[in-house]
Protein 1
Amino acid sequence: MSIKDSEIAQDLYDIYDYYCHSKIDRRQFIDRISVYAVGGLTVPSILAFLMPNYVDAQQIKSDDPRVDSSYVTYDSPKGGGEIKGLLALPQGNIEKLPGIVVVHENRGLNPYIEDVTRRAGLANFIAIGPDALTPLGGYPGNDDDGRLLQRKRDRHEMLEDFMAAFEYLRSHPQCNGHVGVVGFCFGGWISNMMAVRLPELKASVPFYGGQPDDEDVIKIQAPLMLQYGALDKRVNAGWPDYEAALKKNNKKYIAHMYPEVNHGFHNNTTPRYNKEAAELAWERTIAFFSEHLV
């Protein structure tokens, strides 16, 4: 049975969010969604609707002739050691380009984040999407196992991996030395924290990311563009205090709260995706980087 978005209650998106962020396990997830298996809906059909569809959602394929993309490794001595990442830039580029670190969610470098990395490359940047699961064998091919693996790593150690990616990109011969970061969910928190930890960072765009502690906000030097979904109560709970700290410390930021969209609205592989909000947010992201990474 094909399910329409209008048939899915907001509670189901919230349950999926709890599951994706390890607030409930798979058995609890199935138990909770089974309550909604009425009126022709079944648990398998609801699961098929909620879970990511990477094959059909891909926007920039790995063999797209417009983008030069390949896997690279770089050193992260304070993190996980040698880290694998996808590097993408325009095909045939001979100029030095601004750099973007693309930070994955809480499940490793999955096909969606690889796609976003290629989108950044196509937008005339040199982009790297690191895989923080590299020390554990890398993204395992599905998000459920990816989440379990990522929980085995310390998030501050993973932060070191992404900061090392910043240094790798900044010194890359095809980079102009000006590097920003964009991240999603867990990657949104990483993007906020890279702004705290790296005074040389030129711009940061956290998508629905956890906020840094108030006492860390004073350390932020990079301009921020903060992207939130209005229905994302879990992450948005920390926004008022974060905004107050940004204002108190005279930090440069722009915040966008997209109405009637969920956490993960940019991820076009799941039904939480909102095409209008996602395209606008990405357009704003690229314009922000184009302004600050020159």
Note: The chain has two domains: 5-51, 63-292.
Protein 2
Amino acid sequence: MKETGVIKFNCNWIKEDPMDAGLLLDLNLWREKMFALGFIGVYEDGIGYGNMSIRFRGNQFIITGSATGKLKHLTSRHFTKVTSYDLEKNSLTAAGPILASSESLTHAVIYEHDKNVNAVIHIHNMGLWKKLMNKMPTTNKNIEYGTPAMAKEIIRLFDETNLRTQKILVMSGHEEGVIAFGKNLNEAGNVLFKALNS
């Protein structure tokens, strides 16, 4: 069984009404594209996979909520805003109608370490995962997703590899997991499509 979708951080969840749907139009459009391609979804055991986010303000970001992978269409009730995080305490604060995705710490460090990034897409695709393994920036296979260790590993990739220019990484210890990012959702999505078709 693939271990995914389990929240491993302490979440200070502030329940708030859904955000204005207008803020989510592009995010929802791209999320539906990823779902249609099977890059976001749910495994036969019911565990969901894949998540997406956009920068909101400063290092704050809007991300798909936990356990939304199974849903074909999302509404504003399925997104939440991450307002702060602390790797050393393995915690983050999220405000919205739903818990933040299990991969939120990973998104957080990407936004913090590249101010030009405004969108992050985390997909699952076995073919792409195998194809890019150790050819693109790749995390250590012993590092689990959704943990401070994974977030720190991505910081290491920013410091030691060409991740900032490649805009795509492989999560070696998270089977099928690939993350792409860019100045907007179009760029992040096109990074994925280019990698798939190269």
Note: The chain has a mean pLDDT of 94.
Protein 3
Amino acid sequence: MRARITAAMLAALLALTAAACGDGGGSQGTTPAALVASDLERRAPDAPASDVAAVGAGNNAFAAAAYALLAAQEQGNLVYSPHSIRLALAMTYAGARGETAAQMAEVLRFDLADEALHAAFNALDQELASRNRVEPTRDDGIERKVQLSIANSLWGQQGFTFVPEFLDTLAADYGAGMRLVDYVAATEAARRAINEWVAEQTNDRITDLIPEGVLSEMTRLVLTNAVYLDATWSSIFEKDATYDAPFFRLDGSEVTVPTMHQQSFFRYAAGEGWQAVELPYVGEELAMVLLVPDAGRFPEVEGLLGAGLLDEVVAGLAGVEVNLALPKFEFRFKASVADLLKAMGMPTAFDPGAADFSGMSAEDRLFISDVIHEAFIKVDEEGTEAAAATAVIIDLTSAPIEVMELSVDRPFLFSLYDRTTGQVLFLGRVLDPAS
């Protein structure tokens, strides 16, 4: 049977709160776990390679534009998943109409017709799922693997009617069914259930995506997306080559941090004011690119991301011997990105009086009340662990060998991407690995 849904949340979590009528009960009952879904099974990937490439190019354009705003608003280290945010909003977009849909398409760089867009997201998602692998354990006992999971789920108000075509699209192209909860009478129980799902999908790296007070009795739908990566370097850093070394912050101050070292054959590039190196993971399909501005030129180089610098870096990568020093780091970032999305050009979706999500439900007017995003990254000798979740909340109303030297002892940028599709999964900066 076909499901009903109200608030959208992505495990990079997308929560949509709908301005519905109804009693504002305050009791917190048990969380309903009933799962309803469209009759449709998830379709096999069936999209032209050009459409999948267009979705990837759009993601990277959105990644650079969003990074520029986040970097200007936030201080310190930064990591986020443009793929998670955009995927969550793609599900929401399936229910948008009119000017609301037009603004979302422009900001999110959706350049395909609706049906082709959702089919391309489906094909891309299933291609990324093929990156998973586990290699036989070697004498050092380290498990070499790539674990990449991307999951979507819907959390709708029980008794609220959703448009069947909306649920069909989410089932066929995003593999998302709907879990029924009661935001009206059991708001806190619903919040806990969603957060528990996100925690499970991110290996407990993101445990409290939706804070208390974000959902309310007016919430009708939460669409959730979660992205989790645990990947081993193709060339592991030896732990006995890790030792304390200085890292110079933007203000010139110095901090001592555990720094990994290895000399190996990597793809490397250099340009005006920067150096870059690509560190592939097991299987050589996913990689991290480190973009290291020269001393004193971080703001200048960071500002070029929106002008396509990452594409220039990747295109210029070539294999050389690199003597690399890289600090270990681990941090997380969490914020509402609603204001960012409004500033990028989609305010109508957040306007209770103007938002048009009639493709979701004809029962009441819905609008996005908030979009919450959280991301985590950990880089050490063995590899990288990263997780992200997004929540949209809808309410009613990479010859002789020349050895290149690269010591990452100053603020740097990083991009974690899929080498085949070019899809940027995580993007960020490290200003202080000790913080």
Note: The chain is about 25% helix and 35% strand.
